[in-house]
Every structure is written in structure tokens, then in C-alpha cells.
Amino acid sequence: MSISFDKALGIHQQALSFRSQRAGVLANNLANADTPHFRARDLEFSAVLAEQAAKRSQPGFAMQTTNARHLSVESLPTGEGALRYRNPLGASVDDTSVDVHVEQAAYAQNAVDFQASFTFLNSKFKGLISALRGE
């Protein structure tokens, strides 16, 4: 009997990858906080989740259209479409949309979410190892 790592690990592997990419985007925003005319960006989790669900074609995530006026599946953002510009909370003198406090809070929340995904993934691996050892 073979082990399917995709089924055993669930979405935690993709969540870890997403959190890592988002950390890079948020760090780039913080690094360019004093750059005039810089536009802050962020990754949208729902767009990445829709992309991963489309790749896996899980029936639980499938979009059903019951009316001719529903949006098509092709209109969902994928890939780079998940990277969105952030709306500034207020006007700035140098026309930048980076709010350092918002970016730091988002980075801290992303770090907590990364650690949670890493902990879940670690527990999955520990469970697989104990199952292989027969414990």
C-alpha cells in the first residue's frame, strides 16, 4: 500500500508556500515604505485557494452555475492575479500607499499563520512516521 502525500498532508503544504510568498511581498512593501509613488501589494488568500482548488478539481470547491447570469469560472483570478494592490488608508505626502503600521501588523499576522501551518504540517509528518514504525 502506497502513501499519497497529497492526501496525507492536505492543504498545509500549499498554505506554507503561500505564507512564504506573502512574507516576501509584505517585506518588499516595508522595504519601500519611503519610496515615493510606491504602491503596496498583498497576496489574496481566496484567489490562491481558488487556484489550488481548480488544480485539484475537488468537488467541494467546484463552482456551479445554476443561472445564465452567473460568472464563469474563467473570471476567477489565478497566478499573478492573486497579487493585488492595497488601498491606502489615508493620503501621504510622497504619494505612497504603504502604511508602515498596517504592513507590520500584516507581517506579524502572516508569521503567526506561517507558524500554525508549519505546526500542522509537522504533526502530520510525525503521524506518518509513527504509522510507518507501527507505533
UniProtKB/TrEMBL annotation:
GO terms for cellular component: bacterial-type flagellum basal body, rod. GO terms for biological process: bacterial-type flagellum-dependent swarming motility. Keywords: Bacterial flagellum, Cell projection, Cilium, Flagellum. Residues 11-38 form the Flagellar basal body rod protein N-terminal domain. The keyword ATP-binding does not apply. Its main location: other. It is found in: Bacterial flagellum basal body. InterPro entries: Flag_bb_rod_N (IPR001444), Flagellar_basal_body_rod_CS (IPR019776), FlgB (IPR006300). Belongs to the flagella basal body rod proteins family. Structural component of flagellum, the bacterial motility apparatus. Part of the rod structure of flagellar basal body. PANTHER family: FLAGELLAR BASAL BODY ROD PROTEIN FLGB, FLAGELLAR PROTEIN. The basal body constitutes a major portion of the flagellar organelle and consists of a number of rings mounted on a central rod. This is Flagellar basal body rod protein FlgB. It comes from Atopomonas hussainii.
